[in-house]
Amino acid sequence: MNDSMSSMAECLVRWGATILVAVALIVRCKIYLKRTDSSQRHVIVDIGTCKKIFDCKKYLDDILTNQLTPSASRAIPNQRLVKAFNIYNGFTSQDPALGKRFKADASEKINISDDAWSKIAHISQTLVHQQISGADTHGDAIFLNRLAQSITLKISLSVLYGLEPSTLNSTAIAHIAEGIDARWRASKIPGSHCPISLVSLNQSLQTIFPALEIKEGRENPLNFILPAYETMWRAVLLGTISIAFPDERMSHPSNYSTVLVQYLQSPNKHTFEQIHPSEGGISVAHIAQEILRLFPPTKRVYRRYHFPNEEPQLLAADIEACHHDKTIWGDDAQTFKPERWRSIDEKTKESYMPFGAGKYACPARVEFAPMMVGLLVAAFVGQLTEAQREISKECTENRGRGKTEEDKGVKLVNRRGMANFIVRRKQ
Description:
Elements: H1 2-32, E1 33-35, E2 42-44, H2 47-54, H3 70-75, H4 79-85, H5 96-109, H6 114-138, E3 142-143, H7 144-161, H8 170-187, H9 198-208, H10 222-230, H11 233-244, H12 253-265, H13 269-273, H14 284-294, E4 300-305, E5 313-318, H15 319-323, H16 326-329, H17 346-350, H18 368-384, E6 389-394, E7 420-425
Parallel strand pairs: 2-5
Antiparallel strand pairs: 1-2, 3-7, 4-5, 6-7
Helix pairs in contact: 4-8, 6-7, 6-18, 7-8, 7-10, 7-11, 8-9, 11-18, 12-18, 14-18
């Protein structure tokens, strides 16, 4: 009798423990996950869990273990890019050794001297000035999206491959930028047709790299161009608009322009971080951090997970949601406010991850990317604020959703296929 009761008690304990685990999983899932209607992907919005997802680790209180290797977990969601661009790099390969080599090569390419930064600043200012002054002379509108893409791509090619931006074929550059954007967006929709073929994209690449045989695999220049250019140009565009065409919520828009223009005179790590007491106590670093917070280059980081006895699933760490969380950043979380970076606590810093975190964090995150964003935005702002200008927004396709709030006015929405921003000189 006692043995029977003891066995029953043990069963109840085990069942109770199982139920508690199940309840915990359900509760945690409700807290951490939101399911998108279109793709049935799990989107993670909790900061701590996002960081586990970056490293392809366990999650939900370390109860569920990913059966895939970290390299596979990272590479599988990016196979759509292999099909779209014929690339083979650290983002698409399941070989951890190749991933390490790719990261090392990228780190070497972006390790540039102070003299190189000065040269980039001069070239950027020259390119932007030529385009904007030319438009002013002929009374033409400035299509800011295209200009941000063109300048960012030319500077990326200069840094990565030592090409001289002023000599690059502008038609080929425009087609490459358009092709990257179109094929990237099409790759996210299975079965969709892209109007720009990979053949035509490679033809434009061949124009830029006449001595290089454009082919698939490790020798494809897009292996480095995509992570450098594609993630940066939107931050440059939206950061420029935020400063050159401020809304009424911004506290010191003129200060931002002044600090940025001064940075162009001598761009280096010291001037990037230098505080300007007479300009509100901010630095270019504060401005760049705020741009990357509001408009993170990668809004979501995807990982493939395969839990025991379950179908494989795709988990997405939602960086943008973490960056816009009012419980962390305050009620003004979606307001462009570099001043917030003058005094920021550790908990808030932990939620800032525009280039991911952990072992797969982008090697450009510490210096190169923030400094480059600050420099390119400075080049645009310096030219756009020299005269009275106005900006308007030309809506792109609505993707079958009908007109939404983000398509009205000049509200800034960080997405591929965003509206075209058009700048005209006031009469």
